[in-house]
Amino acid sequence: MANQSLLASAWALDVNTGTSGAPTWTRVKGMTSFKETIESTVEDDSDFDSNGWGSDQVTQRKWRLECEGKRKRDAASPSSFVADPGQQAILDAGNLVGVGSTIEIRYYRRDGAPDAWQGLVSVQYGGGGGPTTGLEPFNFTLNGQGARTAITNPAA
């Protein structure tokens, strides 16, 4: 059997617009770029018993998601602006400091792969503007607050 590469566009991101006890998972639409990063803090673990060979130990990990896309609105409401609810939840949290600036998210692949995680994140929001021929961009970084948790893939 031949191997086939996975498509980056198979990732999905949902934000909890409900409560932690009764979550309402709302898809963030319009994404054009999705990047997961896990950073490790490493300390030298070498000792005299290793015959001159060094050793490193991971002492901490941090995770984040960096995403970009195009702002979306409900086209069925041309006379009033109704934002994509997933994008709006991220924008709203990205404008707060302290309480309310941490949100719950889950992200997963929609192609049958088991990759799926959930966690709390702080939001750094960006976007707005562009050239006269451009579409309204948005970008955000979701910084993990503690460990992410592996979940059963909702698309499975």
Describe the structure.
The protein is mainly β and 156 residues long. Helices cover 6% and strands 44% of the residues. Strands 1, 2, 3, 4, 5, 6, 7 and 8 form an eight-stranded antiparallel sheet that branches. The longest helix is centred in the middle third of the chain and has 10 residues. The two termini are 23 Å apart.
Radius of gyration over all CA atoms, rounded:
19 Å
Strand count: 8
What is the residue-mean pLDDT, rounded to a whole number?
93
Which runs of at least 5 residues are low in confidence (pLDDT < 50)? none
H/E order of the elements?
EEEEHEEEE
Instruction: Tell me the span between the first and last alpha carbons.
Output: 23 Å
Proportion of residues in helical segments: under 10%
Q: How many DSSP H or I helices?
A: 1
| Derived structural class | mainly beta
Report the β-strand fraction as a percent range. 35-45%
Largest β sheet strand count, sense and barrel closure: 8 strands, antiparallel
Coarse shape: globular
Summary, kept brief:
This protein has 156 residues and is mainly β. Helix content is 6%, strand content 44%. The chain is built from one helix and eight strands, in the order ββββαββββ.
Q: What's the helix and strand layout?
A:
Elements: E1 11-16, E2 25-27, E3 31-44, E4 56-70, H1 85-94, E5 102-109, E6 116-127, E7 137-144, E8 149-150
Antiparallel strand pairs: 1-2, 1-5, 3-4, 4-7, 5-6, 6-7, 6-8
